[in-house]
Specification:
By secondary structure, this protein is of the alpha/beta class. The chain has a single domain, classed as Glutaconate Coenzyme A-transferase (3-Layer(aba) Sandwich), CATH 3.40.1080.10. About 20% of the residues lie in helices and about 30% in strands. Strands 1, 2, 3, 4, 10, 11, 12 and 13 form an eight-stranded mixed β-sheet that branches. Helix 5 packs across helix 7. The model has no long low-confidence stretch (mean pLDDT about 95). Keywords: Transferase. It holds the Pfam family CoA_trans. It comes from Streptoalloteichus tenebrarius (strain ATCC 17920 / DSM 40477 / JCM 4838 / CBS 697.72 / NBRC 16177 / NCIMB 11028 / NRRL B-12390 / A12253. 1 / ISP 5477). InterPro entries: 3-oxoacid_CoA-transf_A, CoA_trans_fam_I, CoA_transf_BS, NagB/RpiA_transferase-like. This is 3-oxoacid CoA-transferase subunit A.
């Protein structure tokens, strides 16, 4: 029952080239930066990533992207990373863009054992009809395009079928966690973290504060430990190291 690991290297043990990862966070909020750094240190390459976005230049998943470690990204937003755009348009990176709510539900469905579901989001667009450029060729033509998806009518409204997502690993960050893997997320960090954690076959959580079993109010737990296999306690310095994408001040 004790899922605590001593080091970040131990937390990502067993990762391999070509593995798939669901990664929590929204922008740089709630991003498992320590685990991403540990994943970088393994030298793993050719990985597939499912995340709301792929970090920013020099931070979050952007670190792995800049090193050429990521081969495929499933995301809903890519606008804060110039290197991402360069690799995508240059044919170096395969990208599946998914409506944000659909991405969240695909992760949740995968974690619940639901293989597919129907949603009205994307009906009548290239999301359902296919043709979105997943990968470009070096000459700028489309090398791989998204396929057409099944559309079915329910109560007079058309819905498109979307597949649930399961990944080999999931990396998430929580404010508090106990040794059994029960997790609590803080405010905006409770974004894609619980959903990413559900989708991973091996889920690793870095926690800012480790507590003993029984200390967390059962009604306050956001993600039960059944979804978590490894827990990495952060040092106070690591827990306090939180980057901000765009700092604004009021005059």
């Amino acid at each position: 029952m004790d899922k605590v690991v001593a080091t970040a290297a131990e937390a990502v043990a067993g990762v391999r080239d070509g593995a798939s990862f669901a990664v929590g966070g929204f922008g740089l909020s709630g991003v498992p930066s320590v685990l991403i750094s540990a994943l970088y240190d393994t030298g793993v390459r050719g990985i597939s990533v499912v995340s709301n976005n792929c970090g920013v230049d020099g931070a979050g998943l952007g670190v792995l992207l800049a090193a050429g470690r990521i081969a495929r990204v499933t995301a809903s937003y890519i606008g804060e990373n110039k290197e991402f755009a360069r690799q995508y348009l240059g044919g170096e990176l395969e990208v599946e863009l998914v409506p944000q709510g659909t991405l969240a539900e695909r992760l949740r469905a995968g974690g619940c054992g639901i293989p597919a579901f129907f949603t009205p989001a994307g009906v009548g667009t290239a999301v359902a009809e296919g043709g979105l450029p997943w990968r470009y060729a070096p000459d700028g033509t489309v090398a791989v395009a998204s396929p057409r998806k099944e559309v079915r009518e329910f109560d007079g409204v058309e819905h498109v079928m979307e597949r649930g997502i399961r990944t080999d690993f999931a990396l998430v960050r929580a404010a508090r966690g106990d040794r059994h893997g029960n997790l609590v997320f803080n405010r905006a960090a409770r974004n894609f973290n619980p959903l990413a954690a559900m989708a991973g076959r091996v889920t690793v959580a870095e926690v800012e504060e480790l507590v003993e079993p029984g200390e967390l109010d059962p009604d306050a737990i956001h993600l039960p430990g059944v979804f978590v296999q490894r827990v990495l306690p952060l040092t106070p310095e690591q827990a306090a190291d939180k980057q901000v994408e765009k700092r604004t001040v009021r005059g």
